[in-house]
Amino acid sequence: MKFSCIDLSFISANLAIKTNWSVNNDPWGSDHFPITIEINVTPTRLTRKNFKYNLNKLDWDAFHDTLTSNAHLFSSMEFLNCNHVERYNSFKNLIISAIENNMQSKRSTHSTKEKKTRVTTVQATKQSNKTTIENNIWRDDECERAVRIRTATYKSLKYRCTLETLINYKKIVAETRRKLKETKKQSFMNLCQSVHKFTPIAKV
Q1: Chain Cα centroid distance, residue 203
Q2: pTM for the complete prediction?
Q3: What pLDDT, in 10s, does the model give residues 87-99?
Q4: pLDDT tier for residue 51 given thresholds of 50, 70 and 90
Q5: DSSP label at 138?
Q6: 3 state SS for 62-94
Q7: CB-based burial, 36-45: b 16+ in 10 Å, e otherwise
Q8: DSSP assignment string, 98-126
Q9: How many angstroms separate the CA atoms of 180 and 173, rounded?
Q10: How far apart are CA 204 and CA 194, in angstroms?
Q11: DSSP run (H or E) holding 55
Q12: Exposed (0-12), middle (13-18) or buried (19+): which is 127, by Cβ within 10 Å?
């Protein structure tokens, strides 16, 4: 048994100098050593604003009058000399301005605070759920013990690589994989049995 890594990773020349490539020491029960690739770049997030208004609060008569009074703008030479993108943006901005200026009522500060509180609660719940998922709550003490035994067996195999230790390692890997799979399945079944029509969606 040779402890080597034959896996290949390809990356562009522009990112090669910003990339760190390493191989983990523990195969985690696999026949390949896990590869860690770190790219030292700052990700760019593109955010898009989704315009959504409660049109039930819109004064449609005033909205109509606003658009009618500004209709002459679309026949002006300045507008006609613009390209299609600029024309679209002018038309869109006029509609948005007409909507925002003709809402019958504004949201109260109290309702805004309530919404912020709800958003904060949802974000906290999502963060909590994310942490729970990463920690694998279905893994009990027996699973942790099986993983530790698998790791110790692998270290023993590296120290004394014989046919006997290799067979024993393969056996331990299979038993650990089966144990984790059965425990995860049973945990999911228990979750399904505990869910009913009154169960909060956040708990699920």
Answers
A1: 19
A2: 0.41
A3: 898 888 988 888 8
A4: low
A5: T
A6: HHHHHHHHCHHHHHCHHHHCCCHHHHHHHHHHH
A7: eeeeeeeeee
A8: HHHHTBS-PPPHHHHHHHHHHHHHHHHHH
A9: 11
A10: 10
A11: none
A12: exposed
